[in-house]
Amino acid sequence: MKSVTRVPLRIAPRLVQRPALVRPIHSTVVKAANVAPVVGTGPPPEPPIQPAENVHQRVARRRKQAEMLKHAKELRNASSGKGGGGLRMRFWKDVSVKEVDGALQVFLDTRPLRHPVTKEIVQIPITKPDLASALALEWDLLTSAQDATRHHLIPLTSLTCRALDIAAADNVTGGEIPEVRNTIATTLLRYLDTDSILCWNPPAGAHDRRNDAGESLRDVQKRTAEEVVSFLTTHVWPGITISPVLDGHSIVPQSQAPGVREIVQGWIIGLDAFEIAGLERAVLAGKSLIAAARFVVEWTEGSVARGHLNPGKKFGVEEAAVATSLEVDWQTGQWGEVEDTHDVNKEDVRRQLGSVALLVSGTGLKA
Known about the structure:
- This is ATP synthase mitochondrial F1 complex assembly factor 2.
- The mean pLDDT is 85.
- α4 packs across α8, α5 (179-192) crosses α7 (260-269) and α6 (217-236) packs across α9 (289-299).
- Strands 1, 2, 3 and 4 form a four-stranded antiparallel sheet that branches.
- The chain has helices spanning 12-15, 55-80, 129-140, 155-173, 179-192, 217-236, 260-269, 273-286, 289-299, 317-324, 326-335, 342-360, and strands spanning 95-100, 103-108, 111-112, 124-125.
- It contains twelve helices and four strands, in the order ααββββαααααααααα.
- The protein has 367 residues and is mostly helical.
- The longest helix is centred in the N-terminal third of the chain and has 26 residues, at 55-80.
- 46% of the residues lie in helices and 4% in strands.
């Protein structure tokens, strides 16, 4: 009997003829995707309302944090064997201001206040009693001699010493312009290309925020800049035209007209030591050379004083701080402040501008 041929299972599929066309069978209906409608095309939401701020609670909280940090630092120093030594307590009891050889000096008991680097006695012009009194108050508030080595605790002393260093450089070089003046002028002129007062917001749209007077941010910036610039081009730098560096939708700063930088540079170099030191501090505080120049000529007692030509309200610390912080104030008014950031910067700008007013002002102001 002939045996039946067996086909292995692994090659069986090859012997089966497959249909030429396979038609898939589906039980679901094909539907197009349902895209969600676009939202957020309307005006922006209302700004968050800040809760009522209790200043006393915030001050108490910060004092408690400072005490905790101080206590922790003392524990670390005690465990590591480090001590403050004689720098823990201040070596003076009373601080006074006396006139010596036609200048004002600050005395720590019987010791005159000295420059922290050159060790020269700090001599304040006799026409600046407010500056001398402020220096004495600054040192009277120090609790230890170690605090006197921290420059952030003696900012007015540092600013005064900066002015005295410039005056000393002027005496050394004689009639030539010292290098420190050229360096300051070069640095400050860079802020003219990105001046915070000359950078304007693009034109307002239909949904942009406006103030109670119906003005947009651009309107407020333009009005503020025109007031400051018109005073400078009339009484300080007559004959020049100062243009906005950012206007409309441009993102590239525009340069001033030929000759403007040279005139401003010559004016900066010609300031006296206290004025140029104050101008430098004001520019760095507000990021605006225009506002700083307006502020210095308003308060100085020197030859560039123009405050007596101002028929309106005095351009003081608050006015200068507001003029240089228009966009920040506008945004925080709409979206709220960040605690320990915007509020700290706001007070710091006013503190630095106040120190400039003390530095450049004096009894020699023109009536």
